Amino acid sequence: MTPIEVFSMANAIVLPMWFLMIFLPQWKITRFLIAHRVIPIILAVLYTVYILLYTMDYGIMDFSSLSSVMTIFTQENAVLAGWLHYLAFDLLVGIWILNQNKFLGLNQLLIAPCLFLTFMFGPLGFLIFIVIKATKNNKR
Question: What is the pTM of this model?
Answer without folding.
Answer: 0.92
